[in-house]
């Protein structure tokens, strides 16, 4: 008799419930599932422990879909949302996990930079696509974003540190004006603190208010960073 192999995923961390601190879900109560692995290496990535292969090997636990859902239920079965993050969760074939989380009554939000598309994204309630601006040092192919535009609950979010990033954000918004659009204040773990982030929020808000091409953009801080600083698991 051959043993049936159970598919597992590299899980960096599962935590919650917490208040989502950014993007379209800001203020909502959610669990987080962070998967290991990413096809980008952004200069200011705040989750390198979930990106670099040696870090992923050291920090991840292989868990099946059933084990992930059991853990989420242990944390709180009544929390309405589960946010899948990374790394880039779209690296993985998550069909079984998505179906089991939906069956368990969780609504699913996903965060990805938009380089890879998977069919399971269509079974999530909210898909945040976050193309990376010039300050990331990555080159983003904006044509790839078109694949996401038909998804339910899709929104685009651009992290902005400076004028060059803001110009990139305008290009994204102009290319896909029908997609809800978020501008998020950039946060550099090494160099930023609450004061510098509030100053950048003030600058970004003023810039959006003065630019008619951004009049429908939603400007947000990273609420959890303002509340708790740059800590993990919040
Ligand atoms: S895409 Fe996201 S997770 Fe990947 S390196 Fe960039 S910031 Fe980090």
As for the number of domains, it is 1
- Chemical compounds bound to the protein: iron/sulfur cluster
Please mark out the parts with pLDDT under 50 across 5 or more consecutive residues, or reply none.
Answer: none
Assembly state (oligomeric): single chain
Overall geometry comes to globular
| The CATH homologous superfamily | Aldolase class I
Topology pattern, helix = H, strand = E: EEHEHEHEEEHEHEH
- Can you list the strand order of the major beta sheet? 3-1-2-4-5-6-7-8-9
Radius of gyration: 18 Å
Helix content: 25-40%
Largest sheet: 9 strands, mixed
CATH level 1 class label: Alpha Beta
> Could you say what the CATH topology is called?
TIM Barrel
> What structural class do you assign from the helix and strand content?
alpha/beta
Structure, described:
This protein starts with 7 loop residues before the first strand and ends in a 6-residue tail after the last helix. It has a nine-stranded mixed beta sheet with strand order 3-1-2-4-5-6-7-8-9, sandwiched between helices. The protein is an alpha/beta fold. The model has no long low-confidence stretch (mean pLDDT 94). The protein has a single domain, classed as TIM Barrel, CATH 3.20.20.70. The protein has helices at residues 53-59, 65-75, 95-103, 163-175, 194-209, 223-228; strands at 8-19, 29-35, 61-64, 81-85, 107-112, 126-129, 154-160, 181-185, 218-220. Helix 2 packs parallel to helix 3 (95-103). The chain binds iron/sulfur cluster. Iron/sulfur cluster (SF4) binds at residues 38, 40-42, 45, 47, 51, 86-88, 113, 132.
């Amino acid at each position: 008799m051959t043993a049936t192999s159970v598919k597992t995923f590299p899980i960096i961390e599962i935590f919650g419930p917490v208040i989502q601190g950014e993007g379209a879900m800001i203020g909502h109560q959610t669990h987080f599932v962070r998967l290991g692995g990413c096809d980008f290496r952004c200069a200011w990535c705040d989750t390198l422990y979930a990106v670099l292969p040696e870090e992923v090997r050291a920090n991840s636990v292989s868990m099946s879909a059933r084990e992930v859902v059991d853990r989420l239920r242990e944390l709180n079965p009544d929390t309405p949302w589960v946010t899948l993050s990374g790394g880039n969760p779209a690296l993985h074939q998550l069909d079984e996990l998505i179906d089991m989380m939906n069956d368990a009554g969780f609504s699913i939000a996903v965060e990805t930079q938009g380089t890879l598309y998977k069919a399971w994204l269509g079974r999530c309630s909210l898909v945040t696509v976050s193309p990376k601006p010039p300050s990331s040092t990555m080159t983003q192919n904006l044509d790839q974003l078109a694949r996401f535009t038909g998804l339910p609950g899709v929104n685009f979010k651009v992290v902005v540190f400076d004028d060059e990033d803001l110009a990139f954000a305008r290009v994204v918004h102009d290319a896909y004006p029908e997609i809800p659009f978020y501008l998020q204040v950039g946060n550099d773990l090494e160099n930023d603190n609450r004061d510098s982030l509030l100053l950048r929020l003030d600058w970004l808000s003023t810039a959006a208010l003065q630019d008619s091409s951004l009049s429908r953009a939603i400007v947000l801080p990273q609420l959890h960073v303002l509340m708790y600083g740059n800590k993990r698991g919040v």
